[in-house]
Design brief:
The chain is of the alpha+beta class. The protein has helices at residues 3-15, 19-30, 35-42, 46-58, 78-92; strands at residues 33-34, 62-67, 70-75. The chain is globular.
Length: 96
């Protein structure tokens, strides 16, 4: 693994470090969603959801498709969903 790969992975984990962003990504793993849909589903304010989406876009974790004034967000790829699902599953394991 290259130093550049380690740095990029570190940046990805930084983007995933917020419980709110993880909740948004888990919703997007189910289906592409608008900001309004994410606001309703998470109970977070619209400005906060928009800020999280901005951070996730900067980390190349989500993509946006615009149709007029409506923006629909989706995961950039399924790898992200697998990383999150595995991390959540791992965190629920009881040490033995």
């Amino acid at each position: 693994m290259t130093d550049q790969g380690v740095v990029r992975a570190s940046e990805l984990f930084k983007a995933l470090s917020s419980p709110s962003r993880l909740a948004i990504l888990l919703l997007l793993a189910k289906s592409p969603t608008t900001v309004g849909g994410l606001v309703t589903a998470t109970g977070q304010s619209q400005p906060l959801v928009s800020q999280h989406l901005k951070n996730l876009r900067a980390a190349n974790v989500v993509t946006v498709e615009r149709l007029g004034r409506e923006a629909t967000y989706s995961l950039a790829d399924r790898h992200i969903a697998h990383v999150i699902e595995d991390a959540v599953s791992h965190s629920m394991e009881v040490p033995g």
